[in-house]
Design goal:
The chain is of the alpha/beta class. The protein has helices at about 10, 20-30, 45-55, 85-95, 125-130, 160-170, 200-215, 230-235, 265-275; strands at about 5, 35-40, 60-65, 70, 75-80, 100-105, 115, 135-140, 150-155, 180-185, 190-195, 220-225, 240, 255. The radius of gyration is 18 Å and the shape is globular.
């Protein structure tokens, strides 16, 4: 293994949204052994930074499901934005879900997150909205915020509600111009659908980075737990899913490690690198 691509929520973070000391030690050991590590997350770059900084060494972040690849110091490697015209059509097409629609933009100021209203957002994102309050701007109608290309559009809600939203999105007239990625937490009855530019995913981002670094896919390890990790896991020569992943992902024949509350990341690394003596 020369490159490790690792998800954050549900993988690196425990259910208490913390990095376990055993996992942290395993990542630092892998880094010391020469393994390059890249964090791949659905979070915005700014929202993922505090997690990345805990590692204690330089890493690159593939944020917003692979739309932006950037170093901790702010150096850009790649950006793959959703054309504003397409995003506008998505908002119109998803009109019945606009109360739970979010647009994100690649900036670290107010307006990085745009919603049309806050009273219809699911309770499952209340803590997320509280933490991101300095970046949230309310714009009515939400399409008015699309003066520049956004990173993505997102619709969120209960699992049942988002199953309906998925069917509506599948009927989008410009379906060939977008990528739809689903993240689902059944135990929280929460699901979100990310709409990104076509051919944008964690898998494409990791493949692009591995090619840039001259690392063959056979030497790439990926660890994830959710549907938005599938493309990344499919690319990696060493795919590993967390024990807390849904049964659907466990049917793909990938190696299963412990859950995020059982230091599954450390277990996966120990299986490849051996235990630290």
């Amino acid at each position: 293994m020369r490159l490790l691509a690792i998800d954050i929520d549900g993988t690196l973070l425990t259910s208490a949204f913390e990095v376990a000391q055993r996992d942290l030690a395993a990542l630092r050991r892998a880094h010391a052994l020469g393994v390059e590590i890249i964090l791949c997350t659905g979070r915005r770059h700014t929202f993922a930074l505090p997690i990345a900084e805990q590692l204690g060494f330089e890493v690159w972040l593939c944020s917003s499901n692979g739309a932006v690849t950037r170093s901790l110091s702010g150096e850009d490697f790649h950006r793959d934005l959703l054309p504003a015209a397409v995003a506008r059509e998505v908002c119109v097409h998803m009109a019945e879900f606009r109360g739970a629609t979010v647009l994100t933009f690649d900036k670290a100021t107010k307006g990085a997150i745009v919603v049309e209203r806050t009273d219809q957002m699911p309770t499952a994102v209340s803590k997320w909205m509280e933490k991101n309050a300095p970046y949230i701007e309310v714009v009515k109608p939400i399409e008015a915020a699309l003066e520049v290309d956004p990173v993505q559009a997102m619709v969120c809600g209960t699992v049942e509600r988002m199953a309906v939203a998925q069917k509506v999105l599948d009927g989008f007239p410009q379906l060939d111009q977008i990528t739809i990625l689903r993240t689902e937490y059944v135990h929280r009855d929460f699901s979100l659908l990310d709409v990104l530019n076509r051919d944008c995913s964690k898998g494409h981002a990791v493949e692009r980075w591995a090619r840039h670094r001259g690392i063959p896919r056979e030497l790439v390890m990926a660890i994830g737990d959710n549907h938005n990790d599938v493309e990344m896991l499919e690319f990696a020569g060493i795919p590993v899913i967390m024990g807390n992943a849904c049964d659907e992902l466990k049917q793909n024949g990938w190696q299963v490690t412990g859950s995020n509350d059982e230091c599954g990341v450390a277990g996966a690394l120990e299986a490849v690198l051996g235990k630290d003596s």
